[in-house]
Amino acid sequence: MVERAHLGQEFAPLKAPHLENPYPFYARARHEEPVFFSKDLNAWVVTRYDDVRAVVAQPDVFSSKDTLRPVVQFTPETFRELSKGFGFLPNIINTDGEEHMRFRAPLNQAFLPARMRKMEADVRTVANRLIDTFYQDGQTEIISRFAGPLPQEIILRLFDVPLTQMTQYKQWCDDIKALTMSPLTPERQLECARSFVAFQHAVAGLAEERKHTPGDDVISCMATVHHNPARPLSIPEIVNTAMGTILAGHDTTTSLLGTALYILLGTPRLWQTLCEHPENISTTVEEVLRFDSSVHLFFRTALREATVGGVTIPEGAFLLVSYASANHDETQFANAEQFDLRRSPNRHIAFGFGSHFCVGSPLARLISRVALESLTQRLPQMHLKPGQSIHHVPQLAFHGLASLELEWDVIQ
Ligand code: HEM
User: Fold this and answer.
1) Scanning 142, 153, 289, 307, which has its CA 20 to 30 A from the CA of 265?
2) Please, which residues have CB within 8 angstroms of residue 208's CB and are 6 or more apart in sequence?
């Protein structure tokens, strides 16, 4: 390692230029100071592939217990409103060991790849229906018209939520994300807390119902599949895990699709290659996951003093593992800064690693593949609308475009 560069002072993931393109900074970090401390975020940032994997592979040393620590301060009114629901209980994402398995086992079953494959025809139907709604316009904002609604509808179908409530669920999801991740006015914070409670009560109703009359959906799995029959998941535990999973699944997949289209259409040769050789779509999805995934950073907490990449991390300290940086580590990926739609092997860790590996990855892969198959077939003549300004949404863990305008000549 070269002389300490104090990169922590420069690390500003929520602001440009890092927000729009963090990779030059991460390349420096991996070479100059692969594990650095950010005072602003009060966390040790881990940037090398091997170190990131080593951290998340040791849940007994680096716990997930604080992964959901709120980045904003709640007002007393917000706390009062939240007390009308079930609050922020432990769930799949912020537990370790045996406790984590209680949440994980039913979801492992609910998201089995074989089960997901049965959804393929549905995903294709929804993708084509959405394309029909804008095809004749010759232009669209693809995030709100396609990349958002596609995973949202598929995930709500998996949870067997009535699709008539889709708009309501979308509003709740947006409000909950804002409540936990964005600085808001007290009035807006209270409004979002009301959405949080309303969402919890709606899912609690579904969980009660499915406990007695289970169906073939994710909530029924959580109500009936038990890792430890002596300690089945309670209704509030099901509610919070279902809520987290709905949220985790839809935003991440939306962002991945937006980024995929931005990369591919940004270099028209890539889009053309994919339209002519759709057999490369699966490796393309993996390369988008590696090159610019939708989950950049995740928290862990050191349960005892430990060493990461030669740096001593004190007991109780927070760590931020950078999956984004790990996936550009040149010791693992040849020409790591190049996008290669046929890259193989591609051992990216965009879905995490170890016990918290993304349980929804088979679904994310299915939706992304079918979405790109449908778009390359129906709109090979598509291109980026010139002159638009491209912005990412400022969020610490997640990474995705706010909007993406596309155009094409309509072929009658
Ligand atoms: C491109 C899409 C996606 C990406 C990049 C992604 C990424 C990730 C990552 C990095 C983790 C590990 C977090 C950690 O280290 O603690 C994770 C966990 C998780 N993901 Fe995904 N995810 C995606 C899609 C989905 C979908 C579609 C669902 C479900 C509908 C989902 C549900 C979950 C859940 C429940 C966890 C927690 C698993 C656990 O803690 O055991 N994700 N995801």
Assistant:
1) 153
2) 235
Written as six digits, the tokens of 60 are: 């007994």
pLDDT at site 5: 58
Our mutation pick for probing the ligand 1 site, out of 252, 294, 395, counting the most ligand atoms within 8 A of Cβ, is 252
Sequence-distant (≥ 6) Cβ neighbours of residue 406 within 8 angstroms: 139, 140, 141, 142, 261, 265, 382, 383, 384, 385
From the centroid of its chain, how far is CA 390? 20
Question: Which residues, given as ranges, of the chain have pLDDT below 70?
Answer: 1-5, 71
> What's the pLDDT score for residue 396?
86
Question: Residue 395: what pLDDT?
Answer: 84
Q: Cα–Cα distance between 371 and 314 in angstroms, integer?
A: 45
- The torsion angle over the Cα atoms of residues 15, 43, 181 and 365, rounded to 10 degrees, is 90
For residue 282, the CA-to-ligand 1 centroid distance in Å is: 19
Strand partners, 319: 44, 300
| Full strand arrangement of the beta sheet holding 139-141 | 139-141, 405-407, 383-384
Beta pairing partners, 236: none
Which residues 6+ apart lie within 8 Å of 139 measured at CB?
385, 405, 406, 407, 408
93 vs 91: CA distance, rounded Å? 6
Residues 6+ apart with CB under 8 A from 171: 195
Nearest to 256 by CA among 166, 99, 342, 365: 365
Report percent pLDDT > 70 for the chain.
Answer: 99
Ligand 1 site: residues with CB under 6 angstroms? 56, 64, 67, 92-93, 104, 107, 155, 245, 248-249, 252-253, 256, 293-295, 298, 323, 350-352, 356, 358-360, 363-364
Q: What is the C-alpha separation between 353 and 331, in angstroms, rounded?
A: 18
Q: Quick check: helix, strand or coil at residue 389?
A: coil
Q: Whose CA is nearest to atom 41 of ligand 1?
A: 356
Confidence (pLDDT) at 411: 78
* Ligand 1 center to 252 CA (angstroms): 8
The tens digit of pLDDT for each residue in 2-34 reads 445 589 999 999 999 999 999 999 999 999 999
